[in-house]
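Fill in residues.
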């Protein structure tokens, strides 16, 4: 009887640990998708490629602007088509000296 109980406990621990591994893997792929979508969105600004927004924003998307007002996917796409960005943040930059070819 005790051996059966220990086998049951071991089985439950195994199943629980496998479920946690699967959950971590699912979140890793979700994080990778979000990072790629953010990158695609940033790269779509200069060529004004609205297809990226059409692809990554859900049909029921609701955004919140700095002033607290809400906007829809259609609003975001309309603004994207008609508004040039006033500034773009630089996330990462590397430079090289023209004369030496080395990084400062």
């Amino acid at each position: 009887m005790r051996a059966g109980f220990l086998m049951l406990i071991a089985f439950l621990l195994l199943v629980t640990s496998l479920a946690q591994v699967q959950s971590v893997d699912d979140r890793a792929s979700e994080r990778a998708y979000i990072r790629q979508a953010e990158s695609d969105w940033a790269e779509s600004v200069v060529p004004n490629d609205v297809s990226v927004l059409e692809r990554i924003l859900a049909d029921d998307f609701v955004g919140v602007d700095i002033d607290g007002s809400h906007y829809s996917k259609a609003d975001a796409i309309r603004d994207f088509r008609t508004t040039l960005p006033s500034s773009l943040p630089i996330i990462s930059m590397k430079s090289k000296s023209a004369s030496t070819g080395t990084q400062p």
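The helical segments are 2-45, 51-56, 73-82.
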